[in-house]
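Researcher: I'm preparing a figure for a lab meeting and need a structural model of a single chain. I don't have an experimental structure, so a prediction will have to do for now. The sequence is pasted below. Please return the structure as tokens so I can convert it later.
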Amino acid sequence: MKKNIIIALAACVALAACTKNEVKPVNIDQEITFQAVVDKAATKAGTFDNSATYPTDRPFGTFAFFYTTEDGYSKAAPKYIDNAKVSNPTSATNGSAWTTDPKYYWPKQGYLTFMSYSPYAELSETVTCAPADDAMAEIKIPNWDVDAHQKVDIMIADRVDNQTANGSHGGYTGVPTVFRHKLAQIVKFSIKTKEDFRNLDENNLPQAGSKLFFLKKIELQKIVTKGSFSSGIEPSNINIGVWFPLTSSEGTDYTWYNNEEATLAQGNASEFNTTAVALSSGDINTNGYLLVRPQIFAENDNKKIEITYVIRSYTSASDYSDETVVQSFNIYSATQSWGINKKYSFTITVDLNQIYWAPSVENWDDVTSTGV
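Model: Understood. Here is the structure written out token by token.
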């Protein structure tokens, strides 16, 4: 490479001596590197560490398309990079850290458009990015099952056009690669009573008329987990892409919380007479949240949240009866959809209908007796 540069510069000198015209020196080939971040506006949805910093140990995939005139990117642009793995082998947090193996270099003339996705390991065999049906290229992920990939945080980067050299962005040197989440999250359920029904005495113990509430189970029913994603031809904060089908009658049931305690006692963690937050349990506890496929809900569909709880009613300080209650409601009543790059918390309020009396008195019946 050095020998070629010397020859090229020598040729420039000779040309300048003969023609007395200004000649620009030949640039050294520049390796294409990348600058990967998670969009700051996306931190509410969160990566696995709820950070806007892209993880240095998570390779992503990239495509690049070549065209010769500025703003000339079109469906006819040929691929310059085809689904290459971009990694940070030194886990550096700045500089020219994100690169490919083999290396790619910037063209001497012309422009590149980049489209990228994450993570590479789980998606590289599935993802496509090519013009189809007389349209420009978009990133597509067909037949994805979120339930089977609970640890896969799908992200698509904003498309960047007219790139000719590495730039400096957020401490890294390379192609600006801003990722946005393409799934949704369920993060918390809060269960509470509308008012305090405990009627405790001065020793904080139940007495006649007291009611204690104990949470037994929270379930999400018929959640759509399968579908295909299309990024659109220009992914960005405005063009976020779409999952389809938008909904389905089929789905997966999830147990978010399950209290298997046989004995319920005052002060148990499952008591929710004030406000109790039900943390995740079972497989969901792997992440502390549930990744879900974005989807829409209908007023009369089978997508429900079901809660099971026990109401303990006291007739005296020591006597009570337990009633197990199962209630369900359509998710539509809380939100009409789960959107891309959103996370959701649910607050469920349990209320009781107070018993009232409506007294009345029947009039005396008049009876007339006649003597015999």
